[in-house]
Request: fold
Amino acid sequence: MGAGSLTLGAAATTLSTPLGEPQFHWTMVTTWPRNFPGLGTGANRLAESIVAMSGGRIAISVHGAGDLVPAYDVFEAVSKGKADMGHGSAIYWKDKSPAIPFFSSIPFGMTASQANGWLYHGGGLDLWTEVYDPFGLIPMPVGNTGIQMGGWFNKEIRTTADFDGLKMRIPGLGAEVLARAGGHPIDLPGKALLGALKDGSLDAAEWVGPYNDLAFGLYKAAKYYYYPSWQEPATVMEAIINRRSYEALSPDLQAIVMHACKAANQDMLAEYSARNPVALQTLVSRFGVELRRFPDAVIDRLRSLSAKVLEERVSKDELAARVHASYRKFQLQSLEWAAIDDATRSMRDGLL
Amino acid sequence: MGAGSLTLGAAATTLSTPLGEPQFHWTMVTTWPRNFPGLGTGANRLAESIVAMSGGRIAISVHGAGDLVPAYDVFEAVSKGKADMGHGSAIYWKDKSPAIPFFSSIPFGMTASQANGWLYHGGGLDLWTEVYDPFGLIPMPVGNTGIQMGGWFNKEIRTTADFDGLKMRIPGLGAEVLARAGGHPIDLPGKALLGALKDGSLDAAEWVGPYNDLAFGLYKAAKYYYYPSWQEPATVMEAIINRRSYEALSPDLQAIVMHACKAANQDMLAEYSARNPVALQTLVSRFGVELRRFPDAVIDRLRSLSAKVLEERVSKDELAARVHASYRKFQLQSLEWAAIDDATRSMRDGLL
Reply:
């Protein structure tokens, strides 16, 4: 364990431990800085809930990015059993399998509530389980950032030509789309973004949304804050569990781990729902950030490029094609209901 | 136990029971017909998860409305220890305390994701706990229907005058608002609605949304399906736990019950997100239901009546006033973020 780890196993000793000392000592690695708001603290709470519900039979040490393994090595580390569990997002593993990005967020994809509907009650999680199975990993949705933002820019985006040569931090399929639009996508872990924006190695960067972007201080290096997030409308976070570690647990402990993931999924989205609005107000009124909306023509162009990127990605892989078909069917059948949802939301400012 | 109960305690014997036979035999009463889609099945899954995570140390028998106690006696039954746990919605107990309706849904109130943000990370659950404390009850949010519908009507609503003398099933504060608009609100449990619409004791009825309304066959007795739901934009379901029953549990079992509630909260909303869209398609394309939107002038009038009803309700009760202030503050500070959320949703039909 690195010096930077948060050892929740220690906390477990203060809990009632009906079965005595810990039977399992789990290691959790994450793609986030330790205790990072929402993402890191959500991973901590996931671990705490497993420790508490197991009465201390499972102890868990939680590691931030770069502690035990670098952020982007989390998938590999859990797959190989170097850690028992990981917390991150499928968006970082898109090169492991063509189907993977659907389980995080794809350009012009689902909202958070649609994604949860698809995953838990629309066949999505079964497909995800199938996709991760060859890696010895069991996936669970654990957190969703909700609506994201389009990113931080120091110049206005008026036409797609403004993307020409733009060095922008953007991961996942959004990166491939940006490249086709003429930009230079660069993938960096969140922690590196402020420095890279300041020293000019990045012209623009997207991270998450107000709550997380404020925490990294991105407003210090860019003036315009663009929406909507065409690239990640709402992104699913994941827990990945090493299958052997999981199978070593008794059925009640397995149930505890799985339900802890579902509770943490609820909790993290709720945290974003509460914190994003306040952080946005802070960014605008205290730090003078200027909100900008991408022009419709830019969105239209990105949409058509996204469709091509997606089509090429799934066309040569049977499993990816099946995942895409399931995802698309869910989105399509939700259209009419989504219109009623919108009509209801439009009343929102009524009673204030 | 009535013959209609679903005894999950029996299922527990098939699970790993590291601590032997059940230590606790809990009774759960619900306001729903047994196994009713989403609400009843969600209550079942909540019980199942507690049984599984506890390794069978807690056994739970789940009762539908009218089995052990009538639907609207659930609060009283758990408060008095006749049952250990209940599943229903705070909307049914508005006469117990002026503050209660804020924990289900109020006219022109929060969306599901805002409600969860407020409850878990905006102080809402602390207030709810305070409000239920004198009744010996511990509340937890367990499920949210998401966006609801405005209800079923056999005549079109063109102006507020069309509410004159209208006998409509509608619970909660919406009922008080309808009365001020000239209607006759009638509160009936969901199970009674189809019969009452058919025999003319009701002219109109609102229940939940497409998934649940289809299950009760309400389309058989009314032609027009109105939106938006001004009266319950998105309604929180609750678990209520008898405090003495809860305090008898060891800390790990307490943690299991609480996290089971949070996981079930996530799961139920996801189910509605998946099932409502499909049910709406069925209602419209198979059963010829006609969707109608309330005219803006009607919504405006109901909004102003709602503000009055709410103000009068909270003005004479210190705790209700505090709850209202907290709720309102959360809604207000979410306005700017909600506009960005809307802008992102408007891209939704992009990639289909």
